[in-house]
Amino acid sequence: MFSQNDWTKNRDALRIFGNAMKYFDKSVRRTLMQSVLRTYKNINNFSDREIIRIATICVNYLFNIDDKHDFQDKEVEQIFLLLKSLEPIPAFLMYKLLGKFYLAVSKGQKEDAEEIKNVLRMTGYTEVAQRLEI
């Protein structure tokens, strides 16, 4: 499925990648993420549904980073820029907030990361906050 030239435009392939990325070898996951980022470089040119799908994949990618040094990788920087560039509308709030959380973690800004977790708890996202590691 991922060998197709246009797999990044296939909804089902994107769902599989997003849901199963933790099972991929780190180098494969990285290569596939680079393909996604290339296709959706100008993210705001896509529909809200597509943006949410890609933002979800981006957040899942950050969640699955198992080595702090990986936060320095080029695709992680691109993910941070993509999430930051999302329009400030309610539908994208969680993705922007989680992007800020992981950016704070990547820079060692523990107080900022903890503040974001507290906001999540206060707004009823306790389970999400518990899953976030600083």
**What is the overall silhouette?**
globular
Number of domains: 1
What is the straight-line distance between the termini?
Answer: 34 Å
Mean pLDDT: 93
Strand content: under 5%
Count of discrete alpha- or pi-helical segments spanning 4 or more residues: 7
Q: Which structural class is indicated by helix and strand composition?
A: mainly alpha
Q: Describe the largest sheet.
A: none
Q: Using DSSP, what is the number of strands? A: 0
Poorly predicted regions are none
Order of helices and strands: HHHHHHH
Secondary-structure map:
Blueprint: H1 11-20, H2 26-39, H3 48-63, H4 74-85, H5 93-106, H6 110-122, H7 126-131
Helix pairs in contact: 1-3, 3-4, 3-5, 4-5, 5-6
Brief summary of the model shown:
This protein is mainly alpha-helical and 134 residues long. 63% of the residues lie in helices and 0% in strands. It is globular.
Describe the structure.
The protein has 134 residues and is mainly alpha-helical. It has one domain. It is 63% helix and 0% strand. The protein is built from seven helices and no strands. Helix 1 runs parallel beside helix 3, helix 3 crosses helix 4 and helix 5 packs antiparallel against helix 6. The longest helix is centred in the middle third of the chain and has 16 residues. 25% of the residues are buried.
Please supply descriptive tags for the structure shown above.
mainly alpha, about 130 residues, globular
